[in-house]
Structures are given as C-alpha cells and as structure tokens.
C-alpha cells in the first residue's frame, strides 16, 4: 500500500486586472518616473521582478503607462491621473459591448440622483465647448 501525500494547497488566483491595479497604484504614489525595481519594492505582494516587468509591459501596450530609457534601464510613469484611468477603464468596458445604447441607458438609470444631475451638467458643458 502506498502512502498518500497530501496535495499542496491551491494558490488563490488574483482577480483579473488586480496586479495591473496594484502596479498603477504604486506608480501614482511615486513622485515621478520610477524603475520596475522601485515598483516591485513598493507593492504589498511579494512579486518577482519578471512579473512586475510583464505587468508594466502589458500596461504599456494598453497605453496606460509610458516609459523612457534612463541609463541602462527604463523608468515608468502613468499616462493619466486616477480619474483619467477610471475613465479609460469605463471606455474599454463600453467598447467591449455590442449594444452601447443599452449599456449607457442602464448605467444612467442606475446613477444616484446627484450623479445623474452632475452627468447632465457635464454633457451640457461639453456640448457648449463644441
């Protein structure tokens, strides 16, 4: 009879995009452009340097971060502030839907009254600027 070896506990998978969110949060906390090593040190999770580089490269491909060469490495910075990044995420979700009208209608009708009024004011202001 063979002895049964207990299975290793399964690692819990991160929510989709959570690493990207953590990396972006670290970049926003920085006082300027930073290296991937700096990002790695400032993340709550213990991640390999290669993992941080993979996330940064994916964010670069999505035009969410930018980089420039400094010496032998790159320094990284976010493209937009927190509000701009949230708007980018909302736009990407909307772009992924077939019926934009239905999605927007559902979004607008679920807004609290104060937010609905703010959205109306912002739309009026945008129309005036055109």
From TrEMBL:
Family annotation (InterPro entries): BlaI_family, WH-like_DNA-bd_sf, WH_DNA-bd_sf
Entry keywords, A to Z: DNA-binding, Transcription, Transcription regulation
Keyword ATP-binding applies: no
Keyword DNA-binding found: yes
Family: Belongs to the BlaI transcriptional regulatory family.
This protein's name: BlaI/MecI/CopY family transcriptional regulator
Species of provenance: Streptomyces thermoviolaceus subsp. thermoviolaceus
């Amino acid at each position: 009879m063979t002895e049964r070896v207990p299975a290793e506990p399964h690692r819990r998978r991160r929510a989709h995009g959570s690493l990207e969110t953590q990396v972006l949060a670290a970049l926003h906390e920085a006082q300027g452009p930073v290296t991937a090593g700096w990002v790695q040190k400032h993340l709550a999770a213990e991640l390999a340097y290669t993992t941080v580089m993979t996330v940064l490269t994916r964010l670069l491909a999505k035009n969410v971060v930018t980089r420039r060469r400094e010496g032998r490495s790159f320094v990284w910075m976010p493209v937009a502030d927190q509000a701009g990044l949230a708007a980018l995420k909302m736009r990407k979700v909307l772009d992924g839907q077939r019926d934009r009208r239905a999605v927007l209608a559902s979004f607008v009708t679920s807004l609290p009254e104060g937010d609905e009024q703010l959205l109306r004011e912002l739309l009026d202001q945008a129309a005036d600027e055109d």
